[in-house]
Write a structure and sequence with these properties.
By secondary structure, this protein is α/β, with parallel strands linked by helices. Helix content is 48%, strand content 14%. It has 13 helices and 11 strands. The strands form 2 sheets. It has a 9-stranded mixed β-sheet with strand order 1-4-3-2-7-8-11-9-10, sandwiched between helices. A two-stranded parallel ribbon has the order 5-6. Helix 5 links the parallel strand 5 and strand 6. Helix 10 crosses helix 13. The longest helix is centred in the C-terminal third of the chain and has 29 residues. The protein starts with 6 loop residues before the first strand and ends with a helix. The site of pseudouridine-5'-monophosphate has 20 residues, from helix 2, helix 6, helix 8 and helix 12. The site of manganese (II) ion has 3 residues, from loops.
Amino acid sequence: MDYTQFLDVNPEVAAAIKEGKPVVALESTIISHGMPYPQNVETALNVEKVIRENGAVPATIAIIGGRLKAGLTADEIEYFGKKGLAITKASRRDIAAIVSRGMDGATTVTTTMMIAHMAGINIFATGGIGGVHRGAETTMDISADLEELAQTPVMVVCAGAKAILDLGLTLEYLETKGVPVIGYQTDELPAFYTRKSGFGVDYRMDTPEELAKLLITQQAMPNAGGVLVTNPIPEQYSMDHDVINKAIDEAVADSVRDGIHGKETTPYLLAKVKEITGGDSLDSNIQLVYNNARLAALTAVEYCRLSK
Ligand code: PSU
Ligand code: MN
């Protein structure tokens, strides 16, 4: 037995992979847990459109009725968005239980990387990744996303990580695990809502071609893990540092007061930040996902050209 019996690659995605055409994977936790309905569905469909406009085939990834899906139909995206928080957030530890029970699962960065790799997709666009939480020196709350980046040879294009995390410790962890952190047209790690964090990246790269070359080289290494590309939010959508940091500090304090822990922590913090900043943070969030989808598609195009 192997994973192929649980995997459904949608026909368009399967054909593109077979023909060596560019494909970009997308996650589903951002749909069910990251944004409210109906903006989540609208955004998910638009992200797919952005990927197509930039020359690649989108493959939104999720678990539906126990099937690992690479590529969803518009109806399946609508179903996921409507069901929202009622869908189980699926990280690496959850995948076998969800599949064996025939349940639905929203894939995080971790499980999206896993399923993308099973399907033969090399590049994945999202908003923000999980990381080392503030206070992790006592809680040990470190996202499985970092472990997956260490072991699965997929490139993840994100807008950095939110300051709900300890960004310095997140970078230390990625260094330990051997994950290269690339800044796209920047020397500084972007912090999701803002373009700057005060922390440097490992390497700055300025073109999709450079990113594609790096991924091809990385994948040729023995026991290759992934690559993290951090793409700053476009200037016109970035938020004021003080406003967003104040909201984040308040959200973290609330989570401690409410005794939130485990897999609930990230969704709780994301929802609180959204509540405190009103619609502003949601708007920025949507725009940076489009920006990452565009870069991922352009990189996938280069990856296919250079792989021929
Ligand atoms: N960070 C965000 N938005 C998100 C997530 C993280 O800014 O939607 C989601 C992603 O799916 C990510 C997951 O993989 O949360 C990480 O959760 P945890 O910290 O429980 O590992
Ligand atoms: Mn966690």
